[in-house]
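Blackboard transcription, Thursday session:
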Amino acid sequence: MRNTKKIYSLWFMVPALLLYLIFFIIPNSAGIGLAFTDWNVHYFDDFRFVGLENFRKLFSERVFWTAFTNTIFFSVVTVIGKCILGFVMALLVTKGTKFNAYIRTITFLPVMISGIVVSIIFISIYNPDTGILNEFLRNIGLESLAKQWLVDSKYAMGAIAAMDIWQWTGFNMVIFLAGMQSIPSDYYEAAKIDGASKFQEIRYIMVPLLVQSFTVTFIFSIISGFKVFAQVYGTTNGGPADATQVMGTFLFKNFSDGYYGYSAAVGVVFLLMTTLVALIFLGILRKKEVEY
Amino acid sequence: MKKRVKSYSAKGILFIFSLLYLIPVWMVLVNSIKAPADANMMGIGLPKDSTVHIGNYLTVIEQGGIAKAFFNGVLEATLSTVIVIITSSACAFVIARMKRRLTTIVYYAFIVGLVVPAAYIPTYLVLDKLSLLNTYAGIILIFTTYGLPMAVFLYVGFVKTIPRELDEAAIIDGCGPVRLFFQVIFPLLKPVTATQFILCFIGAWNDVMIPMFFANGSKWALPLTVYNFYGGYTKSWNLIFADIIITISPLVIVYLCCQKHIISGMTAGAVKG
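(Written on the board underneath:)
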């Protein structure tokens, strides 16, 4: 221990810390300050402190509340969808057969594809007249279910969420699989001897022991749900008439319109809500973890 | 007998599920070789004129600036990944080994970055002040910075599993701190480095938000080339689909070749969290 100083050098932290300071910590702190200014493209080098003006305007803007509720809707729906589907898929492909390996390969594939590219593919799939989704529905006689997916504001947000679930289910499936494989098989054998049914095995042994996997998938999905940008930008870009605006696209819209101070205020609200939700979930789920 | 029926029905469900993934891929592929009017119908049948319009790909490569975008992607993703790996592993090594108030604070500062979203607007201002807007350096440094929290987190966890005695032995044998890290410790971190390489590279390769905020088209990578053909009133889906195939194939090919490593790399971060 005497030698600690000679063996290790604090200088090793400097490059990473410097980058993190300049491009993350300083901007994030400055963002809080900028949110109280009227900085915009017209007065690029000359902005004034305007107090709470940006926030007052923000909270009275209808589009902000649309973005706010859409972000929450999107996060909740995708978290539930991805976690449940991922879990069920993992249950179905636990055995290491060739067929299961093929299923895993296929379902994980979209994770390799950029969100913006997936969006363009789904614009085609959701196309009301020629897209394969409506074409399929018409062919099996469910014409009434063929909707104007991304055009009708009633369905657009759900359609985008479905696309996100499609892309990320495989990812969650793999996390659950890793969790399932780490449960000792003695537990199942013991349960079988006690006469437990398959369902009871899943309910009373697997699920409680998978709390960590659930925590991970929940946290990952909820954070990425809050940060959603490419999926919405790529499909509807917040339209029709701002009906599918989420926090990410709303922020980008104000940014590209040149309202930097206002946009920074959106960023602050965004930061607060993401951090708050992540902390709440972490708190709830960490408590339920089981040691084995 | 009952068991067999059950296993068949599970297989049936899985098969249908896999179609949900295969059909879109097939749709993109088959329409990328169709004539414009045929592709705009977006059907999943073979080309109506029974010809493979390979010319779509040539058009995309010529008009879409594919070579430049590919170069941009390789440059930005590779360099940022390498910088993340070197800086974060060095930083994590010290955090894991030196129990000081300072190192603990630094560690938690990085952990916070796992959750907190980036502040794009002030970052834009910082890049502007440093004259890094619309430069490769700017994009690479931002990708690097956003990759650091996860990397530091994973490296710290892994360094802790390497016995301290090793450091002491190396020092007694005459290693300096720099040689100790680069020649003794860093090679031992290989599993995390591999994970990190996959995570960062794929993240940067597929990201669109950073180039869109901080640079113009000349620095964009493959995913955004699709906008050279999408948008406006006349959409030629044959070219859009061909562009998509070109854009996704590098990663998809790598994925199909070393699937095991990629899947474990992509999820290791999550599983260890």
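Lecturer's comment: Chain A has one domain: 50-287.
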